[in-house]
Write a structure and sequence with these properties.
The chain has helices spanning 18-37, 45-48, 52-55, 60-71, 87-99, 107-118, and strands spanning 6-10, 41-43, 76-79, 103-104. The chain is α/β, with parallel strands linked by helices. Strands 2-1-3-4 form a four-stranded parallel β-sheet. α5 links the parallel β3 (76-79) and β4.
């Protein structure tokens, strides 16, 4: 049972184009659902606070800081396509490196890290 492994889904979120933003969210949702199906516990910021930037007075930096607090408690972070162009993802990746949280970029890398955690 892998449910005890907590995976953080990191991917681009922000865009001035709402269709692009909605596509980022949909991709994160698909990956998160698949990870749950595979037996992992999953935290996906895209779904946890979707549209909060529009319905709250919480600023971008507050969201990033909050998610870094959550990321600190995760076992692995998986980065979705487009992460390289996302300032938030770059911060998350840097945070992972500084905290020695495994960062992966595809499912093959994920399985390797899961095996490492099992040992």
């Amino acid at each position: 049972m892998k449910r005890h492994i907590l995976i953080y889904v990191a991917g681009p979120y922000s865009s001035n184009n709402l269709t692009v933003r909605d596509n980022y969210i949909a991709n994160a949702e698909r990956v998160s659902a698949r990870l749950w199906e595979l037996g992992f516990a999953v935290l996906c910021p895209h779904l946890n606070s979707r549209n909060f930037e529009r319905i709250t007075k919480v600023g971008y930096n507050e969201f990033i800081e909050g998610y870094l607090t959550i990321l600190r408690r995760c076992d692995i972070a998986i980065f979705l396509p487009g992460w390289q162009k996302s300032a938030g993802c770059l911060r998350e990746l840097s945070f992972c490196k500084s905290r020695k949280i495994p960062a992966v970029f595809n499912f093959a890398e994920l399985w390797k890290e899961v095996k490492n955690l099992a040992n």
